[in-house]
Amino acid sequence: MIENVGFIGLGIMGQPMAGHLLKAGYRLWVYDVVEALLAKAVSNGATAAASPKEAAQNAEVVISMLPDSPIVEAVALGRDGVIESMPGGSIFVDMSTTSIITTQKIADALKERGIAMLDAPVSGGDVGAIEANLTIMAGGPSEAFDRVRPLFQKMGKNVTHVGGTGAGQVAKACNQIVVALTIEAVAEALVFAKKNGADPAKIREAMLGGFAHSRVLELHGQRMIDHNFEPGGKVRLHKKDTEIALSVAKEIGVFLPGASMVGQIWNSLTAMGGLDWDHSAIVKVIELLSQTEV
Amino acid sequence: MIENVGFIGLGIMGQPMAGHLLKAGYRLWVYDVVEALLAKAVSNGATAAASPKEAAQNAEVVISMLPDSPIVEAVALGRDGVIESMPGGSIFVDMSTTSIITTQKIADALKERGIAMLDAPVSGGDVGAIEANLTIMAGGPSEAFDRVRPLFQKMGKNVTHVGGTGAGQVAKACNQIVVALTIEAVAEALVFAKKNGADPAKIREAMLGGFAHSRVLELHGQRMIDHNFEPGGKVRLHKKDTEIALSVAKEIGVFLPGASMVGQIWNSLTAMGGLDWDHSAIVKVIELLSQTEV
Questions:
Q1: Cβ distance B3 to B60 under 8 Å?
Q2: Which is catalytic among the residues B40, B53, B105, B172?
Q3: How far apart are CA A286 and CA A281, in angstroms?
Q4: Residue after which a domain boundary falls, among A132, A164, A196
Q5: How many angstroms separate the CA atoms of A118 and A91, rounded?
Q6: Does A203 touch chain B (CB under 8 A)?
Q7: What does the angle CA A81 – CA A85 – CA A87 come to, to the nearest 5 degrees?
Q8: Same-domain status, A139 and A177
Q9: Do B189 and A196 touch (CB under 8 A)?
Q10: Which residues of B touch A255 (CB under 8 A)?
Q11: Is-contact A172 B206, C-beta < 8 A?
Q12: What number is the ipTM of this complex?
C-alpha cells in the first residue's frame, strides 16, 4: 500500500492531480520552482520540499508532471534530483509528455539503484486533470504498474498499461498523431462545405451519425463552427508533441506524411501568433488558404 | 403518400435498398443493364422495366443508385432517360455519389419540366444497405425531402436534410475526406507504435478511451491489426470520391492538403493492385514505406 508520495510539478495539470491524491488521503511532499504554486498545494494539505531530492526522500512513489524532456531529466537525474534520495524498491512515475529516448535514459539510470520507473503520460488536458477523468497510458514493469494503479485511478478514468518502458510515451505520441490529423480532417471538410455554399453545422450533424464520427468532429467541429479558439488543448503543446513524434520517426525510420503535414500547419499557426490558441485553430490555416470562414 | 417508385441500379447497394422498399409495401418498377440483377428484384416482387424511361413512367418517386456521374446523367437526361416520362410534380432522387456539377445540371433540366430533384448519397456501404442503417445526406427542396423521407427511413437510420440542391453531395464529399484522413491518422499511429516496439492492439485500446476516439479507430484500427483487408469500403470507391472532392476543390479554390495526400496514397494502392481491398489498406502504404507490419 502506497502512503507517501512525492509530487514534482504543480502547474495547470500537476496542481489538480496532486489535489486528487491529497483528497484521497495520500501524504504528499511537493516541489515546484514557482513559490505560489507550492504554497497553493501546501494550503491543500501537502508538505513543501526544497528540492526534488527532498520531495522524494520519504516517498514510495514519486510523480512528476513537467513541461518537457530536459526538465524531467534534470529533476530525475540532475543535481538535487530524485535519484539522490529515492530508496531501492520505490517507483518514479513520470506523467509528463517527453521523448521516448529521455524515458529510456532515466529508466536505465534508476534501475541501477533498484528504482522502477513508469512513463505514464496523459490525454485530456486541464479539464481532464480537474475532473479526474484523464486518459493515462502507462509503460514499464507490470508490478510497478499494479502498485501505482490506485493512484492513477484517483487522477484518471481510462488507465491502460500499454507495455514496457517507453510504451506510455509511444501511446501518447500515437494519440497526438491521431488527434492532430483528425482535427485536420474535420477542418478540411468544414471549409470545403462552406466554400460549396453548404451549412457546416448541418454537415457536421450529418457526419456525426455515420462512419465519420469522432470525438474531434463532435467537440472541435463545434469549436470551428463557433470560431472559439480559447484553449482547451494548446497549439504550443500539440506542436511539441508532434515534433517529438517526428523526431523519433526520423531516428528509427517511420513514414509519417500526415503528421509531417500537420507539423507544417503548427508552424503556420506559430507565424499567425496562435501558439496559445486551441489546437482546433488548424481550421484557421485552411480558411486562410481557401479565403473563406467556416 | 408515395405508392409507386421507379428504382434504377440494382447492384451491391441498390438491390438491398430496393428490397427494403418492396418489403415496406411500395410498388417498384426496376431497371438495370444486368439481366440477372433485374430478375432477382422481380423475384422479390418488383416489376421489370425495359429502360429508365419505362421504370419512371408510373412513379411518383424515381430513385437511382449508380456507379458514377456519367451513368447518372445518361439515366436521367439521356435517350430513354427518366426525364422523358416523369410527370410534373414527381421527384427524382439520386442516391449515387456523383460530382456536384452533375447534380446541378440534372436538377436544372428536371426543374424545367416541373420535376424536383434530391441528391441523397449514402454512407455505410453494402452492410449498411443490407441492414437498412445507411447514413443518408440529402440536398434539395424541403417539400420534396419531406415527401421522400418515409422511403429514406426504410433504407437508412441517420437521415439528414443538409441543405439545397447539391448539399447532399457536398456532405458526402466531406464525409469521405474525414473518413480517409482518419484512416490515415490511425495507420500512421499504429505503424509508429509497432516500429517503436509497442503493441498496436494495446495502443489502440488506450486511445479508444480518450480524445483520439473515432469509429475508424475502433473498426479500421482492428482491421489493420488483423491485416484483414476484405472490403468493406473499397479503395476503388473511396478513391473516386476523393477525386470528386479534389476536382471540386480545384475548381472553386479550397486548400485540401490532407485530402491531396490521401489521393496520392490511393494512387499507390492502385499500383499495389489494391483497388478492391478495404480502404483501411492505407496502412499497407505506411507499412511498406516504414518497412514494418502492424
A1: yes
A2: B172
A3: 9
A4: A164
A5: 7
A6: yes
A7: 135
A8: no
A9: no
A10: 188, 191, 286, 289-290
A11: no
A12: 0.92
